[in-house]
Amino acid sequence: MADTFHNQEPKFHQEKILEHESDGIQEFDNPMPFWWSAIFWLTIGFAYVYFTYFVIGVGASVQREYQVDLGVFYQEQFGKLGELKPIPATIFKLSSDPKMMKAAQGLFSANCAVCHAADGGGLTGPNLCDNDYINVKKVEDIFKVVSGGVVSKGMPQWSNRFSEPQLVLLTSYVAHLRGTTPAAPKAPQGVSIPPWITK
Amino acid sequence: MNPPLHGLNPPAHSQTLEQFSFNDAIVRKFVFVTMLWGVVGMLVGVLIAAQLTMPAANFGEYLSFGRLRPLHTNAVIFAFAGNAIFAAVYYSTQRLLKTRVFSDLLSNIHFWGWQLIIVAAAISLPLGFTQGKEYAELEWPIDIAVVLIWVVFAVNFFGTIAVRRERHLYVAIWFYIATVIAIAVLYIFNNLAMPADWHRSYSIYAGSQDAFMQWWYGHNAVAFFLTTPFLGIMYYFLPKAAERPVFSYRLSIVHFWSLVFIYIWAGPHHLHYTSIPDWASTVGMLFSVMLWMPSWGGMINGLLTLRGAWHKVAQDPVLKFFVVAITFYGMSTFEGPLLSVKSVNSLSHYTDWTIAHVHAGTLGWVGFMVFGMVYWLAPRLYQTSIAKPSWVNLHFWLATIGIILYIIPIYTAGLMQGLMWRTFNSDGILEYDFLSTVTRLIPMYWLRTIGGTLYLAALIIGCVNLILTWLKRPTHYEVPVYEAAALSKSWKPEVAPQSSLPSGNVLEMGRSLDRFAALRWHRGLEGLPLTFTIWVVIAVVVASLFEIIPMFTIRSDIPRIASVEPFTPLECIGRDIYVSEGCVNCHSQMIRPLVAETERYGEYSKPGESVFDHPFLWGSRRIGPDLAREGVRNPSALWHLRHFNNPVDTSPGSIMPPFAHLVDQPIDWSQAIRAVTTLSKVGVPYNPQTIADAEKLAHTQSDKVFAQLVTENGTASGVEGVKDMKVLAVIAYMQRLGTDLNKPIDVAPAAPVVPEPKTAPLQTTSRSAP
Asked: Which range of residues forms the domain containing residue B582?
């Protein structure tokens, strides 16, 4: 195998070797490969154009791009619903819509389940499926607790985090949890309240 | 076996010949510890890989993931790669410069000093002594030792250059010079910190500026510790092993200087979409893209040097190691620029993709260069043949399979995680909660652990082989004596030949350009080490200052937020614990302006929010969720208590280690005053009253958190033991995170956030400290 290599007399045998050597190591006087120089110049050109457009010129900053993306996102998510207000009619309209409840479940499991359990049965936070409530007398109160929090007891102020339509959606989800059967219900806390007035 | 040394015959006209021999004892020492620390560092690597598959492998306070991960990175970088670099430098420099090393004493001080530093790191990191910055974790007394030993190394190295008998510096030496200079500059300026006591300090920089400095350092530690010295190794050992001339001298020159100059700028690509100014992130990206070809210059010069020697590669395991190493170098240095493109980075950042990228570079490039070098050196250093030649092949194949088993699952994990984090369902809700994005990766983490174990096993086989070889050594090592003439005093730098372009037909400028492009003028520079070094310093320092000066002077880049205040004394204690436990290794505190991210974590992080963060704790990896708005998302003290005590109690399937010791250990109250005093020295505006009352304030807040625990629990029974324990301080810190942004301010009615950095008027903090 070695012989075939040598018998081929490859082109580089005619290449110029520089006269100097270091500890026996010699160097060819080959030029840089053309494609190498070409790509190097291309990247330099790209950098020049990109910098001019985005830093000196009018290119959008990542923050501005984000604002645009966010606008589109909210448009898609809530545009078709119109404005959602925390009034019983809206809350119960949402809670009777399985599609909306599926969407709300995503919000709930990502944000609320750590304390209230995925099925609302309660962990460090109270059980949301029974008839006993601590700060809720009527369904609109759920909105107040969700958005304003009960910071002294560990309930976050979610209005810092969510838009009003999202808060209303969560409210209707919590209202909808009442009466469901969780896997491991926490003991009731607070006082028992009458059923929701849905009309 | 004593290989002949080439090129030591002096020119015939020379006057007196001087006799000299080489110090190979120092090389033998460094080679030995390279392999020893390699085993230790990779063993820790395998352990922390296993910890991510089963949290039960976190054996108590001192051996938990957060403390061991820095031990792994420091051991493999500074101990394994570091000692290999020193072995290579001592071996090749003496031969390339035809002289004994400048000082045997300094060599030994260098050796023993460096090993002591490694031992100090191996003890202090598990104890939780850390500065909290990646690859710069070692606390200030060790940092001082590192700098002193590095100076010893530099004196010894440049001293050797000064006493050389070979006029011209070979390309390997250029890369060593760049390493010695750049690492000194980077290490010193990133580690500047104000000591609070002998094992704790606070970075003098805060927030965005600290982040910038850290990744200027972090990125260039990769550049000048894991790249340039290994290119030096390649340029010496590869042509030696292949017995072929280097492919292109001109390519060496161009890729060396472009690499040294361009690398420095690229650091901010680690901070895309974070709270650093847009221009810095863009510059970081563009210089990374421009870095692609300079890096590939090294790869080409390596691989094309093997033309005419590929038949040897099939037979010689040393060359096999080198070829795979250079191939991985080429892959990593293509992937690097790719990952630095912002839109790619928005997917890859914080995921395992980065981990895969790094390990392709370190296991493939760095590791295999080291192994190739060690196997080439062994018969020459121990003056006997390798004890088990077939084991070398076994090492090669096991390690290669190990790398593949490591990186493929981790690339997959990184992609999966990045994609899961940004997936919305058709209702516009995030499809995966964070925990489920973690548990889905566990099978990949198992495969990675197996891959890492194979690589480690291969290394152990190599170590045994080396020991067996060492046992075969002659009773006395032969120390050949060589002769060469001293440098001639009358030498003048070579003048580049004139351009061959005809003088009549082209402009003089064209002729000058042609002469410059032929690069023969560089030969003269190679005979002038001082001038050469000054040019390296200029390249490194100028590139650094171009970014650092604007970063520290354009104040509108970091708009102040009036409602953001310094941490309270108790929160400072909690934050110190957070740093000590290495929480930052798994949790970022930096929400990027991306819809999927703000939907998951809340409003994106603003530069003004981390102005009191000494050091910054933005993190680089999300093994756990982001915590930048933890205080907003989850202020429940009881939840945090249960979670710290045993994470799976609140989060089934969590791979976070339990921190039960925080529940049992009392708060060190004196830390409150040390923290606020030291932080005020680095510019955090605490008022004198806060400093004076620090301990009292800490007690009050701790009691408040405890009271909240009791309220949430409904009864004191079950939580009474927690009073005054460390966990309360950490909970206080958690409850504070990210809450200042929307806090009502009672002074000025002005909008709390200055939105557009480019045009916004400057606002200063309008409130004094708590």
From this structure: 569-736
